[in-house]
Amino acid sequence: MSQEAVPSSQPKGLLQQMEELMAALNADLSQLDADFQQSTERPAPVPADGSDRA
Fold first, then answer.
1. Distance (Å, rounded) from C-alpha 54 to C-alpha 9?
2. Between the CA of residue 5 and those of 2, 10, 51, what are the distances in Å?
3. What is the pLDDT along the chain (54 residues), one digit of tens a residue?
4. pTM exceeds 0.85 for this model
């Protein structure tokens, strides 16, 4: 009977580790997405009067 307890606890530990890794990966991807969205929303600076054009 003790042999049945060991295999059943190991997959649960692995599942917990996978869930934690996926949560961390999701957080990292969310931060990268937010950084990317922020960088693409900033337009190049353009003078309001266009004085730099010849």
1. 74
2. 5, 9, 78
3. 555 555 565 667 899 999 999 999 999 999 999 999 998 876 666 667 766 655
4. no
